[in-house]
From TrEMBL:
Catalysis performed (reactions): L-glutamyl-[protein] + S-adenosyl-L-methionine = [protein]-L-glutamate 5-O-methyl ester + S-adenosyl-L-homocysteine; L-glutaminyl-[protein] + H2O = L-glutamyl-[protein] + NH4(+)
Domain annotation Response regulatory: ranges: 449-566
Biased composition (Basic residues): 591-602
Modified residues (4-aspartylphosphate): D500
Gene name tied to this protein: cheD
Coiled coil: none
Protein's GO biological process: chemotaxis; methylation; phosphorelay signal transduction system
Protein name according to UniProt: Probable chemoreceptor glutamine deamidase CheD
Length: 602
């Protein structure tokens, strides 16, 4: 009787096995399975056990993790977990929006007669076919419709590509469309219908994992449908996903999500239009000037530019809201006093902004704006349209010397450059382009999120003020001890941690050791460096801290400001780098451990 009971109920899923399977599913597909989904996971994975002839979940896990070199079974695991609920014209208000708002917008914009839509999480194909039918019916002849339909589940994609459905599944399809765009089955296929080939040709199906590190999907989509998909992801995965969608939508594109989903607290890169339809939000603070070798039409009046050079970078530095309207925007500014009118650009405050950029990028450097204000066109007043390569070299070399990073070194040619200046990060960049008829825009680099951990309330306040005032840094919270820090790490998901050494309840080194085991992340130690503190700091580096700085004094002395700049530089340099333990530093010749590590606090 016991054996019969066990056989009828199937193999038991232990706590450790549940955690392993949950982790495998999350790593493979980004799907977050809560403890409430344990019974669902048990019943669905049990089918794979029976198919493979295994008696226990432990045997199945060993096979997936050690005996599945091709990854086929991991894909089968994902297939059996995913839910494929879908219908034709599900959430009909989205297709009404497509018909009444999106299509008229695409018709009015002129230019390209091509519409590209992405159906992400397409299941058995009813959603992408609904999109294709709507566009085919309401766009004029001559429009090129392309629908990309992706899903992580390989089995549903095979069915979707065939386009065969039960007649009852097609009840939401208007009768006239059913007659026009579907073939009715006969004989053994009676009661079934198939989407006609001319509609199927509009849809491209492919297997695609939204959680994979790199996306090989080109941008510029006019619409993205990702409905009832992200509800299975954790918040961090959702945020990353919508950032990626924003990058791949056209500036005037539309995002459609499920009726039970919303972007509040998930993404700031979209604005709601109602009915779970969203539009991308232009990046604030990013200003770019498109420059084309040859004729430039961005201002409506053709302007001939013979050479595209780095003096455009100077123009961007001095006017982040400039629109290309003539050669004034391309000339280097003339001499001016600090903070004065920087030439013809009409924005005196930009000189001060450039000064501040240089001061923050490299504390020892002279103000960045000064060198640019002294710069003049080589040979004096240049003829209309002539910009020399010497000016390019001057601007680039000066920006390098001032510590303001420049992305790209192109100095012109038959193609053009879209030059951008990002006040938030202090970065200047260039994108190579062919032709344009307006302004290029690119989103700002996300700020570094920092969590400050220190037992002193005054020190937490001082560190937060120092970091928050720096461009490209966002203090997301603070904690008085490691226990509070651990909770806030999971809640706020910071990029970098600043960590004090001496704290109550648990010292910084103990917490660092536990943190690097459970959740490795970049940690910058902030400590009072006595001789004993020096050894503690070296121990912290061995445990995995990426760097250390001397704890600043509570009075704003020159030394404190210098250390503040050092802290900002080290925090801002950490994201994207590994968090492997730093190698212990060997003493330099003639220097004691105390002088090598930092100042003695009094």
């Amino acid at each position: 009787m016991v054996e019969n009971t066990i056989e009828s109920s199937g193999p038991a899923l232990g706590d450790a096995e549940f955690e392993v399977l949950r982790r495998l599913v999350h790593e493979a597909a980004g799907i977050a399975l809560s403890p409430a989904k344990r019974q669902l996971l048990t019943s669905r994975v049990a089918r794979r056990l029976r198919a493979l002839g295994y008696q226990t979940f432990a045997e199945y896990i060993r096979y997936v993790t050690h005996s599945d070199p091709t990854g086929d079974e991991r894909q089968q695991l994902v297939n059996c977990i995913t839910t494929n609920k879908t219908d034709f014209f599900r959430e009909p208000h989205h297709f009404e929006f497509l018909r009444d708002k999106a299509v008229p917008h695409w018709l009015a914009r002129g230019g390209s007669r091509r519409v590209r839509v992405w159906s992400a999480g397409c299941s058995i194909g009813m959603e992408p076919y609904s999109i294709a039918l709507t566009l085919r019916e309401h766009l004029p002849a001559g429009f090129q419709v392309e629908v990309l339909a992706t899903d992580i589940d390989t089995e549903v994609l095979a069915r979707a590509a065939r386009g065969v459905y039960g007649r009852a599944d097609c009840e939401p399809v208007p009768p006239a469309w059913l007659q026009k765009h579907f073939l009715r089955g006969t004989g053994a296929n009676a009661g079934r219908v198939q989407v006609r080939s001319e509609v199927r040709r509009l849809v491209t199906f492919r297997q695609f994992n939204l959680n994979q590190p790199a996306w090989d999907v080109p941008g510029g989509f006019d619409a993205v449908f990702c409905r009832n998909v992200v509800i299975y992801f954790d918040r961090r995965t959702q945020q990353h996903l919508f950032d990626r969608f924003a990058d791949r939508l056209a500036d005037d594109g539309f995002l459609f999500i499920g009726h039970s989903e919303n972007l509040h607290g998930v993404s700031t890169r979209f604005a709601p239009l109602g009915g779970t339809v969203y539009r991308p939000v232009p990046a604030a603070g990013a200003a770019e000037v498109p420059v084309i070798a040859g004729e430039l039409f961005a201002a409506g009046t053709p302007v001939t530019v013979r050479t595209v050079v780095g003096s455009c970078v100077a123009a961007c530095l001095f006017d982040p809201v400039a629109r290309v309207g003539g050669m004034n925007h391309f000339l280097l500014p003339g001499a001016a006093p600090p903070g004065g009118d920087p030439g013809r650009f009409g924005v005196p405050a930009m000189g001060l902004l450039v000064d501040r950029l240089g001061a923050r990028s490299r504390r020892a450097a002279p103000p960045a704006g000064e060198g640019l204000r002294r710069g003049r066109m080589v040979g004096g007043a240049a003829p209309h349209g002539a910009i020399g390569a010497e000016n390019a070299r001057f601007v680039l070399s000066y920006l390098d010397a001032a510590g303001i990073p420049v992305d790209g070194r192109a100095l012109g040619g038959t193609t053009g450059l879209a030059v951008r200046f990002q006040p938030h990060t202090g970065r200047v960049g260039e994108n190579t382009v062919r032709r344009c008829a307006g302004r290029f825009r690119r989103g700002l680099v996300k700020p570094v999120k920092v969590l400050v951990v220190d037992d002193s309330a005054l020190m937490r306040q001082l560190l937060a003020q120092i970091l928050q005032s720096a461009p490209g840094v966002q203090v997301v919270g603070s904690a008085a001890d490691p226990y509070a820090a651990w909770e806030k790490i999971h809640e706020l998901e910071p990029d970098v941690l600043t960590l004090d050494v001496e704290m109550p309840r648990m010292d910084g080194l103990t917490f660092l050791r536990k943190l690097m085991t459970a959740r490795p992340m970049p940690v910058v130690m902030v400590s009072s460096l006595t001789e004993a503190g020096c050894e503690t700091t070296l121990k912290a580096l061995e445990l995995g801290a990426v760097d250390f700085v001397t704890k600043p004094k509570l009075d704003l002395t020159a030394g404190t400001l210098e250390l503040a700049g050092e802290l900002v530089d080290k925090v801002r340099g950490r994201p994207g780098r590994g968090c492997a333990p730093a190698a212990p530093r060997s003493p330099r010749s003639g220097r004691s451990p105390r002088s090598r590590c930092g100042r003695r606090t009094r």
